[in-house]
Amino acid sequence: MNRKKLYWLCQFGGWLFFVLINTVFLRLTNVLDLRQGFSLLLLFILGIVVTHFYRSVIVRLGWLNVTPFGLIPRVIVATIVMASIIYFIQYFIEAALGITSISFENFDAVVASQSILNIAFVLFFWSLIYFLVHYIENYKRSEIENLKWQAGINEIELNKLKSQLNPHFMFNAMNSIRALVEENPERAKESITQLSNILRNTLTMGRNKVIPFDDELNIVKDYVGLESTRYEERLNVEYSIDPLSSGFSVPPLMLQTLVENGIKHGISKLPGGGKLVLRTEVKGDVLYVNIINSGQMNGQGTNGTGFGIKNSVQRLSLLYGSRAWLKLFNRDDKYVETELVLPKL
User: Fold this and answer.
1) Are 154 and 307 within 8 A, CB to CB?
2) What is the pTM of this model?
3) How far apart are CA 150 and CA 155, in angstroms?
4) Which of 170, 206, 289, 316 is least surrounded by Cβ atoms within 10 Å, i.e. has the fewest?
5) With pLDDT > 70 as the criterion, what percentage of the chain qualifies?
6) Which of these, 58, 47, 134, lies nearest to 82 by C-alpha position?
């Protein structure tokens, strides 16, 4: 239902309810007759007409933008004026038609004042409802605009983080290939093929906030292939992937970044190299990713303060809020563990 239909429904329904309440009261006091019935009908019609005119005055004078403290005196004066209009129009119609005991000769100012105040109270209540509805609507509208604005800021921030991450990844990958060009051209060619696979996948990501887990896993495997040509037997990688992981989506290059962090800050620092395990497990609607690598978080190995980790934490916060988290800790005296928890979007 649009606002216009809702407004008229409330107008007719509200004044009809008011008239029915008065009808019941008059019925209970045994003073309801044809004349009283005509007065109530006239009040119903005048109430709708005058409050609709009152609404146009409110809109034209811009009272919907006035603060509550500035609005109260305006409403008090307006309701008294509108109540007076209703009373005197009703008074003159009934007197002119001669269908009630009212006449121009027996006008009573005290009775008129009491009637006007009674009607003014009803109009004040009408004003209260009208302004309250608009304040609530404006509040909801401002909240929606704020949410849209925040979503736009988040989108910009995510794109900024992704644009920072891609050159970072490319720089490291090209360094790995450069080291192979002279000493092992064949493996360098194979590495270039793996890099091209990664680039093709990242280009197809476009502006996607998340990609299928399987696509991200392929990027990880190609990246590990690149690094394996560089570290050779010093790098031992194992995968333990829950088949249900395929039903999840992950931020682009996030797993690759965490794997890179484990290799670069952990295994590469060890003279004899080390081991990296990528393990996933699905529990309900949550994906648990654990990356275990040789090394220690003691200032000589993985410290978790690099660009990739900070970038990943920011992206998780923007995409999932508090529903996702990332933490690094020493699993024991030989291994560091990275735990990533992702809910379904």
Assistant:
1) no
2) 0.53
3) 9
4) 206
5) 80
6) 47
